[in-house]
Write a structure and sequence with these properties.
Shape: elongated
Largest sheet: 6 strands, mixed
Strand content: 15-25%
CATH topology of the largest domain: Hypothetical protein af1432
Helix content: 40-55%
Number of helices: 20
Structural class: alpha/beta
């Protein structure tokens, strides 16, 4: 990455939205600006798990301000992600539609495991190189991530639906601090986190690190009171709890180092931290300087190939887990890519950005082909529906939730009727991916490499709504079953806004 390249990372957290801006200088990233706004979207979910209009507006207003700061940035220089609140929100699409416009860049809703991966990357990259086994903990507004890793490699990752906002709302509802409230909050937290005991045993890590909001808030108060800098221990947590109980309420809380945006949620955050310390037998925790947004920056700094490698490994893990026939998945993928690329000849891509976009679409098509049969292990009947369900409910490192959903739609639509699918056929890139995949599956029906000589997929003259597949009469005579399946494919597309035409050539 060239010196002077600008980079920006946006973290849409449950409590705060954060914008990190920096540039490359002699191969190193230097932060030039950091903006943080307390948006409290995590407390804006109603009983039906919908974001309230007020919560959405707070988010849009903040993103509009961030968007003004990012004017002039390229898409390749910006990465924005949303976490637990938008993972939960049923009306997140409504929020994101306007949020993307306000920010000027796409916002990805990431899974809990992907959030954990990015957190670990952000923490590990800002620590000295070491062989120590690390336990990284991030207590956010509505989720808590636990990661075991060594060096730059996360090995065990989990995300739990417990956070400082959720626990403060549930166990300190009137902003009152009592011994009983803390006891109930810790018991409830341990019940949720109890499954972490086996995976995060005390003998599985050497040093515990804490990242982000709650850890920073507790650490700031302890430092102001004279406790060791950059370190949180059990005595410090006990001292802070006593101070909160003595104050009795948020309104009466007066502690040096306590920021206003943390006062209302410190009870829930502290109770969670105490529960984690007890469960995982932590005596002391070091405060890490890195976190999620730093992980995003390092993802931006990494090459596309490196990011693709993370995703490729996730696809391979899913394929292996569900026992797909690897050779056939790769075969279908190569044929699908070849057909898709016929629709996008290099001469049509005058800019590198367009070419890069097409390459990403082709790569995602290949991944969908690798996974198109993952539902077969559940049942061969309607296996495409089982495969789509698996992808919609999987954590795959490197993928956002919308990306996984797009893959699930490709898997769902690779065979069978099209008219009943909830697919936007006006999305021409996706439609072309789907058509390429369906034709590839048909051509590979014999589970061997098909003869593609003389086959050419292109667009009809009427634009993006019509496509034509040219073939030679000699090919149809040599492969009658393949020709029959292609004729059935024509019928399937007749019942959609798109059309596919078979055209015989000499």
């Amino acid at each position: 990455m060239q010196d002077g390249t600008r980079l920006a990372a946006i973290d849409l957290g449950s409590n705060s939205f954060r914008l990190e801006v920096g540039r490359m200088d002699h191969g190193q990233y230097l932060r030039t600006e950091y903006l943080k706004e307390t948006v409290r979207q995590g407390s804006g979910l109603d009983s039906d798990r919908n974001l309230t209009p007020q919560a959405m507006q707070r988010g849009w207003d903040c993103l509009a301000r961030f968007g003004e700061r990012l004017a002039g940035f390229k898409d390749s220089e910006v990465k924005a992600v949303a976490t637990q609140t938008l993972r939960e929100a049923r009306n997140r699409d409504e929020f994101l539609l306007k949020a993307n416009q306000m920010l000027g860049f796409p916002i990805e809703v990431i899974s809990g495991q992907e959030e954990a991966r990015l957190i670990y990357q952000g923490v590990a990259r800002q620590l000295p190189q070491s062989n120590e086994r690390r336990l990284v903990i991030d207590i956010g507004g509505r989720s808590t991530e636990l990661i075991l890793g060594q060096g730059f490699e996360p090995k065990t990752m989990a995300s739990y639906r417990v956070g400082s906002i959720a626990w403060s709302t549930r166990y300190f509802p009137e902003n009152q601090f009592t011994q009983h409230a803390f006891e109930m909050a810790e018991i409830a937290a341990k019940a949720v986190l109890d499954e972490a005991l086996n995976a995060y045993r005390r003998d599985s890590w050497d040093v515990a690190y804490g990242s982000a909001g709650t850890v920073g808030a507790v650490g700031d108060v302890l430092l102001a009171a004279g406790w060791p800098a950059g370190l949180i221990n059990r005595d410090g947590l006990n001292w802070l709890q006593n101070k909160l109980i003595q104050a009795q309420s948020v309104d009466r809380l007066r502690l040096a180092g306590m920021k206003d945006d943390r006062r209302a949620i410190i009870g829930g955050g502290l109770s969670l931290m105490r529960a984690v310390f007890d469960l995982l037998q932590i005596d002391e925790m070091q405060m890490a300087t890195g976190g999620l947004r730093h992980g995003l920056v390092f993802d931006l700094m990494g090459s596309d190939d490196k990011q693709a490698d993370v995703r490729t490994k996730s696809i391979e893990r899913l394929a292996t887990k569900f026992g797909t026939e690897t050779t056939h998945g790769l075969r279908v993928g190569k044929v699908a890519q070849q057909l898709f690329e016929q629709l996008h000849p290099t001469s049509e891509a005058p800019t590198s950005n367009k070419t890069d976009h097409q390459e990403r679409l082709s790569r995602k098509l290949f991944w969908a082909a690798q996974l198109h049969e993952i539902g077969s292990q559940i049942s061969h009947s309607d296996y495409q529906k089982h495969g789509a369900y698996i992808l919609d409910n999987s954590d795959a490192l490197g993928f956002s939730l919308p990306e996984l959903h797009k893959l699930s739609l490709l898997v769902l639509g690779h065979r069978g009727k099209l008219k009943k699918l909830d697919i936007d056929f006006e999305d021409s890139p996706f439609t072309e991916q789907l058509m390429s995949l369906r034709i590839a599956v048909a051509l590979c029906h014999a589970r061997r490499d098909p003869d593609l000589s003389g086959l050419l997929l292109g667009r009809l003259n009427d634009g993006f709504s019509g496509y034509v597949l040219d073939y030679k009469s000699s090919w149809a005579q040599a492969f009658p079953q393949s020709a029959h399946l292609l004729r059935e494919e024509v019928v399937a597309w007749e019942k959609t806004p798109c059309s596919l035409v078979l055209r015989e050539t000499r």
